[in-house]
Protein backbone atom coordinates (compact mmCIF):
# COMPACT_ATOMS: atom_id res chain seq x y z
CA UNK A 1 0.00 0.00 0.00
CA UNK A 2 1.03 3.63 -0.49
CA UNK A 3 0.44 6.45 1.98
CA UNK A 4 1.10 9.24 -0.49
CA UNK A 5 -0.07 9.39 -4.07
CA UNK A 6 2.48 9.25 -6.84
CA UNK A 7 2.86 12.85 -8.05
CA UNK A 8 1.66 11.93 -11.55
CA UNK A 9 -1.43 10.19 -10.13
CA UNK A 10 -2.09 13.13 -7.83
CA UNK A 11 -2.01 15.52 -10.79
CA UNK A 12 -4.49 13.29 -12.64
CA UNK A 13 -6.78 13.16 -9.58
CA UNK A 14 -6.72 16.93 -9.19
CA UNK A 15 -7.42 17.42 -12.88
CA UNK A 16 -10.28 14.90 -12.69
CA UNK A 17 -11.80 16.93 -9.87
CA UNK A 18 -11.43 20.15 -11.87
CA UNK A 19 -13.19 18.64 -14.89
CA UNK A 20 -16.01 17.34 -12.68
CA UNK A 21 -16.37 20.85 -11.28
CA UNK A 22 -16.95 22.17 -14.79
CA UNK A 23 -19.79 19.68 -15.25
CA UNK A 24 -21.29 20.60 -11.87
CA UNK A 25 -21.26 24.29 -12.79
CA UNK A 26 -23.61 23.56 -15.70
CA UNK A 27 -26.26 21.92 -13.51
CA UNK A 28 -28.19 23.04 -10.46
CA UNK A 29 -28.04 20.97 -7.26
CA UNK A 30 -26.44 18.00 -9.00
CA UNK A 31 -22.95 18.09 -7.44
CA UNK A 32 -23.42 14.90 -5.44
CA UNK A 33 -24.98 13.08 -8.39
CA UNK A 34 -21.90 13.95 -10.48
CA UNK A 35 -19.60 12.71 -7.71
CA UNK A 36 -21.51 9.42 -7.35
CA UNK A 37 -21.24 8.77 -11.10
CA UNK A 38 -17.53 9.63 -10.98
CA UNK A 39 -16.98 7.24 -8.05
CA UNK A 40 -18.75 4.47 -9.94
CA UNK A 41 -16.50 5.06 -12.96
CA UNK A 42 -13.37 4.94 -10.78
CA UNK A 43 -14.56 1.65 -9.26
CA UNK A 44 -15.90 0.22 -12.55
CA UNK A 45 -19.23 -0.25 -10.78
CA UNK A 46 -22.77 0.76 -11.67
CA UNK A 47 -25.22 3.40 -10.44
CA UNK A 48 -28.95 3.41 -9.85
CA UNK A 49 -30.55 6.85 -9.86
CA UNK A 50 -33.98 7.01 -8.25
CA UNK A 51 -36.11 9.96 -9.23
CA UNK A 52 -38.77 11.47 -11.47
CA UNK A 53 -38.38 12.31 -15.16
CA UNK A 54 -37.02 15.73 -15.98
CA UNK A 55 -34.47 15.88 -13.16
CA UNK A 56 -31.36 16.13 -15.40
CA UNK A 57 -30.23 12.50 -15.02
CA UNK A 58 -29.66 12.12 -18.77
CA UNK A 59 -27.93 15.48 -19.13
CA UNK A 60 -25.45 14.81 -16.34
CA UNK A 61 -24.42 11.41 -17.69
CA UNK A 62 -24.13 12.66 -21.27
CA UNK A 63 -21.79 15.43 -20.13
CA UNK A 64 -19.75 12.87 -18.18
CA UNK A 65 -19.40 10.60 -21.21
CA UNK A 66 -18.41 13.57 -23.40
CA UNK A 67 -15.74 14.49 -20.86
CA UNK A 68 -14.22 11.02 -21.25
CA UNK A 69 -14.66 10.84 -25.06
CA UNK A 70 -16.41 7.55 -24.32
CA UNK A 71 -18.72 5.50 -26.54
CA UNK A 72 -22.15 6.25 -25.13
CA UNK A 73 -25.43 4.35 -25.38
CA UNK A 74 -28.81 5.51 -24.09
CA UNK A 75 -32.22 3.87 -24.22
CA UNK A 76 -35.63 4.07 -22.55
CA UNK A 77 -36.91 0.60 -21.68
CA UNK A 78 -40.59 -0.30 -21.86
CA UNK A 79 -42.36 -3.63 -21.46
CA UNK A 80 -42.41 -3.80 -25.28
CA UNK A 81 -38.65 -3.27 -25.77
CA UNK A 82 -37.10 -6.07 -27.82
CA UNK A 83 -33.55 -7.37 -27.13
CA UNK A 84 -32.34 -6.33 -30.58
CA UNK A 85 -33.08 -2.68 -29.70
CA UNK A 86 -30.28 -2.88 -27.14
CA UNK A 87 -27.94 -5.58 -28.35
CA UNK A 88 -28.22 -5.34 -32.16
CA UNK A 89 -29.98 -7.04 -35.04
CA UNK A 90 -28.98 -10.26 -36.78
CA UNK A 91 -25.98 -10.01 -39.09
CA UNK A 92 -27.61 -11.29 -42.31
CA UNK A 93 -24.42 -12.32 -44.21
CA UNK A 94 -23.23 -14.32 -41.20
CA UNK A 95 -26.67 -15.89 -40.86
CA UNK A 96 -26.63 -16.96 -44.52
CA UNK A 97 -23.21 -18.49 -43.90
CA UNK A 98 -24.70 -20.58 -41.09
CA UNK A 99 -23.56 -18.48 -38.14
CA UNK A 100 -25.86 -16.59 -35.76
CA UNK A 101 -24.28 -13.25 -34.95
CA UNK A 102 -25.56 -9.80 -33.99
CA UNK A 103 -24.40 -6.48 -35.38
CA UNK A 104 -23.37 -4.74 -32.16
CA UNK A 105 -21.77 -1.61 -33.64
CA UNK A 106 -23.19 1.43 -31.86
CA UNK A 107 -25.23 -0.76 -29.52
CA UNK A 108 -25.01 -1.50 -25.79
CA UNK A 109 -22.41 -4.33 -26.00
CA UNK A 110 -19.87 -1.87 -27.42
CA UNK A 111 -20.70 1.07 -25.15
CA UNK A 112 -18.26 2.34 -22.54
CA UNK A 113 -20.81 4.52 -20.71
CA UNK A 114 -24.48 3.51 -20.81
CA UNK A 115 -27.76 4.90 -19.54
CA UNK A 116 -30.92 2.78 -19.36
CA UNK A 117 -33.96 4.75 -18.30
CA UNK A 118 -36.74 2.80 -16.52
CA UNK A 119 -34.26 -0.05 -16.33
CA UNK A 120 -36.61 -2.43 -14.51
CA UNK A 121 -39.11 -2.41 -17.38
CA UNK A 122 -36.93 -4.79 -19.39
CA UNK A 123 -38.08 -8.34 -20.14
CA UNK A 124 -36.45 -11.32 -18.42
CA UNK A 125 -34.41 -11.98 -21.59
CA UNK A 126 -33.08 -8.41 -21.53
CA UNK A 127 -32.37 -8.39 -17.79
CA UNK A 128 -30.56 -11.74 -17.92
CA UNK A 129 -28.30 -10.50 -20.71
CA UNK A 130 -27.73 -7.24 -18.82
CA UNK A 131 -26.78 -9.17 -15.72
CA UNK A 132 -23.95 -10.93 -17.56
CA UNK A 133 -22.88 -7.70 -19.22
CA UNK A 134 -22.61 -5.67 -16.01
CA UNK A 135 -21.24 -8.51 -13.85
CA UNK A 136 -18.71 -10.12 -16.16
CA UNK A 137 -18.25 -7.42 -18.82
CA UNK A 138 -18.97 -10.03 -21.51
CA UNK A 139 -21.68 -10.52 -24.14
CA UNK A 140 -22.71 -13.80 -25.73
CA UNK A 141 -22.83 -13.00 -29.46
CA UNK A 142 -24.03 -16.19 -31.11
CA UNK A 143 -21.46 -18.89 -30.39
CA UNK A 144 -18.81 -16.36 -29.37
CA UNK A 145 -18.44 -14.72 -25.96
CA UNK A 146 -17.19 -11.20 -26.60
CA UNK A 147 -15.48 -8.87 -24.17
CA UNK A 148 -17.35 -5.65 -23.36
CA UNK A 149 -15.58 -2.35 -22.60
CA UNK A 150 -18.35 -1.13 -20.31
CA UNK A 151 -17.02 1.22 -17.62
CA UNK A 152 -20.27 1.99 -15.86
CA UNK A 153 -23.96 1.57 -16.52
CA UNK A 154 -26.40 4.02 -15.04
CA UNK A 155 -29.91 2.74 -14.51
CA UNK A 156 -32.77 5.08 -13.70
CA UNK A 157 -36.13 4.35 -12.16
CA UNK A 158 -38.87 6.13 -10.26
CA UNK A 159 -38.62 3.60 -7.45
CA UNK A 160 -37.04 0.34 -6.28
CA UNK A 161 -39.07 -2.69 -7.44
CA UNK A 162 -40.77 -5.06 -4.98
CA UNK A 163 -40.46 -8.14 -7.20
CA UNK A 164 -37.80 -10.48 -5.70
CA UNK A 165 -36.36 -11.30 -9.14
CA UNK A 166 -35.98 -7.62 -9.96
CA UNK A 167 -34.50 -6.91 -6.54
CA UNK A 168 -31.76 -9.47 -7.27
CA UNK A 169 -30.92 -7.62 -10.50
CA UNK A 170 -31.16 -4.30 -8.67
CA UNK A 171 -28.53 -5.45 -6.16
CA UNK A 172 -25.90 -5.46 -8.91
CA UNK A 173 -25.97 -1.64 -8.86
CA UNK A 174 -23.52 -0.81 -6.08
CA UNK A 175 -24.18 2.93 -5.93
CA UNK A 176 -27.62 4.43 -5.27
CA UNK A 177 -28.67 8.05 -5.34
CA UNK A 178 -32.06 9.73 -5.11
CA UNK A 179 -32.41 12.62 -7.55
CA UNK A 180 -35.19 15.12 -6.87
CA UNK A 181 -36.40 18.28 -8.54
CA UNK A 182 -34.38 21.26 -7.37
CA UNK A 183 -35.36 23.11 -4.21
CA UNK A 184 -37.62 26.15 -4.44
CA UNK A 185 -34.66 28.43 -3.75
CA UNK A 186 -32.86 27.15 -6.86
CA UNK A 187 -35.66 27.43 -9.41
CA UNK A 188 -34.25 30.74 -10.68
CA UNK A 189 -30.85 29.15 -11.31
CA UNK A 190 -32.53 26.32 -13.25
CA UNK A 191 -34.30 28.83 -15.48
CA UNK A 192 -31.09 30.79 -16.08
CA UNK A 193 -28.93 27.79 -16.99
CA UNK A 194 -31.72 26.08 -18.90
CA UNK A 195 -32.38 29.20 -20.95
CA UNK A 196 -28.69 29.44 -21.86
CA UNK A 197 -28.78 25.87 -23.16
CA UNK A 198 -31.96 26.51 -25.11
CA UNK A 199 -30.42 29.56 -26.77
CA UNK A 200 -27.28 27.57 -27.61
CA UNK A 201 -29.45 24.92 -29.27
CA UNK A 202 -30.89 27.62 -31.55
CA UNK A 203 -27.39 28.46 -32.83
CA UNK A 204 -26.15 25.16 -34.32
CA UNK A 205 -23.53 26.98 -36.41
CA UNK A 206 -21.87 28.44 -33.32
CA UNK A 207 -18.66 26.82 -32.03
CA UNK A 208 -19.17 24.03 -29.52
CA UNK A 209 -18.93 25.15 -25.89
CA UNK A 210 -15.74 24.54 -23.94
CA UNK A 211 -16.66 21.22 -22.34
CA UNK A 212 -14.85 19.37 -19.58
CA UNK A 213 -12.15 17.07 -20.96
CA UNK A 214 -10.56 14.02 -19.33
CA UNK A 215 -9.43 11.25 -21.72
CA UNK A 216 -10.24 7.61 -21.03
CA UNK A 217 -6.55 6.77 -20.75
CA UNK A 218 -6.25 9.08 -17.76
CA UNK A 219 -9.34 7.50 -16.19
CA UNK A 220 -7.72 4.08 -16.57
CA UNK A 221 -4.69 5.33 -14.63
CA UNK A 222 -6.95 6.47 -11.79
CA UNK A 223 -8.87 3.19 -11.81
CA UNK A 224 -5.59 1.34 -11.28
CA UNK A 225 -4.65 3.76 -8.49
CA UNK A 226 -7.83 2.90 -6.52
CA UNK A 227 -6.24 -0.41 -5.53
CA UNK A 228 -3.25 1.38 -4.05
CA UNK A 229 -5.15 3.56 -1.58
CA UNK A 230 -4.31 2.79 2.07
CA UNK A 231 -7.54 1.83 3.89
CA UNK A 232 -5.78 1.02 7.18
CA UNK A 233 -6.82 4.27 8.94
CA UNK A 234 -10.53 3.45 8.55
CA UNK A 235 -10.39 -0.35 8.71
CA UNK A 236 -11.56 -0.76 12.31
CA UNK A 237 -14.27 1.89 11.97
CA UNK A 238 -15.59 0.18 8.84
CA UNK A 239 -15.79 -3.15 10.66
CA UNK A 240 -17.65 -1.50 13.54
CA UNK A 241 -20.12 0.13 11.12
CA UNK A 242 -20.76 -3.15 9.30
CA UNK A 243 -21.41 -4.89 12.63
CA UNK A 244 -23.83 -2.11 13.57
CA UNK A 245 -25.63 -2.63 10.25
CA UNK A 246 -26.18 -6.25 11.25
CA UNK A 247 -27.41 -5.23 14.71
CA UNK A 248 -29.90 -2.88 13.06
CA UNK A 249 -30.99 -5.50 10.49
CA UNK A 250 -29.75 -3.34 7.62
CA UNK A 251 -29.72 -5.23 4.33
CA UNK A 252 -26.01 -5.06 3.44
CA UNK A 253 -24.62 -8.25 1.87
CA UNK A 254 -21.06 -9.52 2.22
CA UNK A 255 -20.56 -8.76 -1.48
CA UNK A 256 -21.68 -5.17 -0.93
CA UNK A 257 -19.40 -4.88 2.11
CA UNK A 258 -16.38 -6.06 0.11
CA UNK A 259 -17.12 -3.70 -2.76
CA UNK A 260 -17.63 -0.84 -0.29
CA UNK A 261 -13.85 -0.81 0.20
CA UNK A 262 -13.42 0.21 -3.45
CA UNK A 263 -15.91 3.02 -2.98
CA UNK A 264 -14.08 4.28 0.12
CA UNK A 265 -10.74 4.16 -1.70
CA UNK A 266 -12.24 6.02 -4.66
CA UNK A 267 -13.52 8.73 -2.29
CA UNK A 268 -9.97 9.30 -1.06
CA UNK A 269 -8.60 9.32 -4.60
CA UNK A 270 -11.27 11.81 -5.71
CA UNK A 271 -9.83 14.09 -3.03
CA UNK A 272 -6.29 13.39 -4.33
CA UNK A 273 -5.25 11.47 -1.20
CA UNK A 274 -3.36 8.20 -0.86
CA UNK A 275 -4.86 7.33 2.53
CA UNK A 276 -8.52 6.97 3.46
CA UNK A 277 -9.91 9.24 6.17
CA UNK A 278 -13.12 9.03 8.25
CA UNK A 279 -15.05 11.33 5.91
CA UNK A 280 -14.55 8.81 3.10
CA UNK A 281 -16.85 6.40 4.96
CA UNK A 282 -19.75 8.75 4.19
CA UNK A 283 -19.95 7.02 0.79
CA UNK A 284 -21.67 4.12 2.60
CA UNK A 285 -24.82 6.26 2.56
CA UNK A 286 -24.92 5.75 -1.23
CA UNK A 287 -24.53 1.96 -1.05
CA UNK A 288 -27.88 1.00 0.51
CA UNK A 289 -29.78 -1.99 -0.87
CA UNK A 290 -33.22 -1.50 0.72
CA UNK A 291 -34.74 2.01 0.55
CA UNK A 292 -36.05 1.56 4.08
CA UNK A 293 -32.46 1.36 5.36
CA UNK A 294 -31.34 4.76 4.11
CA UNK A 295 -32.05 6.64 7.34
CA UNK A 296 -30.61 3.87 9.54
CA UNK A 297 -27.37 3.81 7.53
CA UNK A 298 -27.02 7.57 7.90
CA UNK A 299 -27.64 7.31 11.63
CA UNK A 300 -25.11 4.51 12.07
CA UNK A 301 -22.30 6.25 10.22
CA UNK A 302 -23.07 9.50 12.07
CA UNK A 303 -22.81 7.61 15.39
CA UNK A 304 -19.29 6.59 14.32
CA UNK A 305 -18.26 10.25 13.94
CA UNK A 306 -18.39 10.12 10.17
CA UNK A 307 -19.39 13.50 8.67
CA UNK A 308 -22.89 13.72 7.20
CA UNK A 309 -22.81 12.70 3.52
CA UNK A 310 -23.35 15.46 0.99
CA UNK A 311 -26.79 15.95 -0.51
CA UNK A 312 -27.88 18.16 -3.39
CA UNK A 313 -30.29 20.82 -2.15
CA UNK A 314 -31.28 21.74 1.37
CA UNK A 315 -33.51 19.49 3.45
CA UNK A 316 -36.49 21.38 4.85
CA UNK A 317 -36.98 21.46 8.62
CA UNK A 318 -39.59 18.86 9.59
CA UNK A 319 -41.80 21.32 11.45
CA UNK A 320 -41.71 23.77 8.53
CA UNK A 321 -42.42 20.94 6.10
CA UNK A 322 -45.49 19.83 8.08
CA UNK A 323 -46.83 23.38 8.05
CA UNK A 324 -46.30 23.66 4.30
CA UNK A 325 -48.04 20.33 3.66
CA UNK A 326 -51.07 21.34 5.74
CA UNK A 327 -51.23 24.73 4.01
CA UNK A 328 -51.07 23.03 0.61
CA UNK A 329 -53.96 20.77 1.66
CA UNK A 330 -56.04 23.86 2.45
CA UNK A 331 -55.04 25.72 -0.72
CA UNK A 332 -55.45 22.87 -3.19
CA UNK A 333 -59.30 22.94 -3.40
CA UNK A 334 -59.10 26.60 -4.44
CA UNK A 335 -56.57 26.07 -7.26
CA UNK A 336 -58.05 26.08 -10.76
CA UNK A 337 -55.33 26.41 -13.41
CA UNK A 338 -53.38 23.39 -14.64
CA UNK A 339 -50.10 25.32 -14.24
CA UNK A 340 -50.73 25.92 -10.55
CA UNK A 341 -51.66 22.28 -9.99
CA UNK A 342 -48.47 21.12 -11.72
CA UNK A 343 -46.43 23.37 -9.44
CA UNK A 344 -48.15 21.86 -6.41
CA UNK A 345 -47.42 18.37 -7.76
CA UNK A 346 -43.75 19.23 -8.11
CA UNK A 347 -43.56 20.48 -4.52
CA UNK A 348 -45.42 17.48 -3.17
CA UNK A 349 -42.99 15.18 -4.99
CA UNK A 350 -40.01 16.98 -3.50
CA UNK A 351 -41.46 16.85 0.02
CA UNK A 352 -42.42 13.21 -0.32
CA UNK A 353 -38.87 12.33 -1.34
CA UNK A 354 -37.46 14.22 1.67
CA UNK A 355 -39.77 12.44 4.09
CA UNK A 356 -38.96 9.03 2.57
CA UNK A 357 -35.23 9.72 2.78
CA UNK A 358 -34.96 11.39 6.17
CA UNK A 359 -38.19 10.74 8.12
CA UNK A 360 -39.55 7.37 6.95
CA UNK A 361 -40.99 6.75 10.41
CA UNK A 362 -43.55 9.55 9.83
CA UNK A 363 -46.15 7.32 8.20
CA UNK A 364 -48.86 9.91 8.89
CA UNK A 365 -46.99 12.52 6.86
CA UNK A 366 -46.28 10.05 4.06
CA UNK A 367 -49.97 9.15 3.94
CA UNK A 368 -51.00 12.81 3.86
CA UNK A 369 -48.58 13.57 1.03
CA UNK A 370 -49.77 10.55 -0.94
CA UNK A 371 -53.38 11.62 -0.50
CA UNK A 372 -52.60 15.18 -1.63
CA UNK A 373 -50.74 13.86 -4.68
CA UNK A 374 -53.81 11.82 -5.67
CA UNK A 375 -56.05 14.84 -5.14
CA UNK A 376 -53.73 17.07 -7.18
CA UNK A 377 -53.70 14.53 -10.01
CA UNK A 378 -57.50 14.39 -9.97
CA UNK A 379 -57.74 18.18 -10.11
CA UNK A 380 -55.20 18.31 -12.95
CA UNK A 381 -57.18 15.79 -15.00
CA UNK A 382 -60.41 17.73 -14.43
CA UNK A 383 -58.68 21.00 -15.26
CA UNK A 384 -57.29 19.64 -18.53
CA UNK A 385 -60.64 18.10 -19.42
CA UNK A 386 -62.31 21.45 -18.83
From TrEMBL:
Residues 239-301 form the ATPase RavA-like AAA lid domain. Keywords: Hydrolase. Its EC number is 3.6.3.-. GO terms for molecular function: hydrolase activity. InterPro entries: MoxR, P-loop_NTPase, RavA-like_AAA_lid, RavA_ATPases. Pfam families: AAA_lid_8 (PF17868), bpMoxR (PF20030). Residues 19-200 form the MoxR domain. This is MoxR-like ATPase. It comes from Actinoplanes digitatis.
